[in-house]
Amino acid sequence: MFAPSPSTYDLPDVWYLAADGMFRFGSLSVTDGRIASVRPAGPPLPRPPPDAPWWAPAGVDPHVHFREPGAAASEGVANGSRAARAGGVAWVCDMPNNVPPVLTAEDLRAKAARFRRDCPLRFALFLDARGDAPLEPPACGYKLFLTDVACTRTAIAPLLRGRKRVTVHAEDAARFRSGPALPHHRRRPIRAVTAALLALEDAYFSLPERDRPVLVLAHATGRPEMAFAWRMRRKGARLFVETAPHYLLFTARDQCAAGAALKVNPPLRSGADRIALWHAIQEGDIDFFGSDHAPHLPEAKSSADPPSGMPGVEWFLPLAYTFAAAGFLPFRRVMELTSLAARRAYGLPASEGIAPGSPADLARMVPAAYATLPAARVPLRLSARPGTPVRPVVSRAGYNPYRDFPFAWFVDDLRIS
Hints:
It contains twelve helices and 14 strands. The chain has helices at residues 77-86, 105-118, 153-160, 184-187, 190-206, 223-234, 245-249, 252-258, 271-282, 298-301, 316-325, 331-346, and strands at residues 9-17, 23-31, 34-40, 54-57, 59-64, 89-94, 122-128, 139-145, 165-169, 214-217, 239-243, 288-289, 362-367, 409-415. α2 (105-118) links the parallel β6 (89-94) and β7. α11 (316-325) packs antiparallel against α12.
């Protein structure tokens, strides 16, 4: 399906999503892995022609769990990379909660060797914030799981101090509840998020300004995270906010109905939280998408105590650009959310999209049958019509949580600079 990318080539007579968010017909030239020239040959269009393939900037997924080392059977670098290619993703940033976790420079070197051997994509790796490894390539940042530390100023501040960039999973485990009858979102209630964010805010501003890192708030689930972002930015914090498509499409009620397939951490929240995320994206308060691709084998998900996590990277660009097809987001905004903003947040090679000088990370989108969605500012439900194409699942999770989603396009070619 995807051939190795040459470093120099031409794409003549193609439709492409230009840097201004408009669609143009023309020719692209790539030299030494960078876009050398863009030659439009006609007027721009606000949408692609309905039956035409078109090229988009390839995705940057800053939040994946390929489960290696420690649980390669659940996905692994090689298979996770294949799933990412199917989703049009050229860059992946893999999380450090492995077995063993990435705490030291030696841990980073060992994990990087696995990725260099098995990952045909561009990649960056996170360091566990509890460790002492320096932030050097291919590391892109520290990951702080507040579930693993006390949510107090004295515990959090040292893990932030003097670091360049820290990505945070914000839940306070002391606020979790137990009980076999409790649904997942009640076991990990939203008050656990609120408590963790208050502790993070206190610790961050307890530091001298020179010692405060750039923060990335991972997988925002709803209103508490957006209130935190507003406060932090108002007080001058350097903050990026990420969310995942599953928080935009599903709620806690959906998880209760679907069971383990939609069991994730942090849990899915209410319909009001989902709508709050949509408004935040439309207003520009959320910076980028991360799939939080976290697969488990079918037998684990069907066990009596199924783990949290679901596949996602495989549908990264098709999901996001279908939001644009439905009118919920402009195409230019989707390009930012999937390809450009995460590069800035994590110090990856800069791109202006399909424009001269940018890396030639390109994905070809091909049309798929899809449902016409209602004219609403926030999608209420997305359901595919009978006959919508269904692609075989690449992830070892073995299922597609978006099987009823009315995809407008799939990816059939990926070029990586």
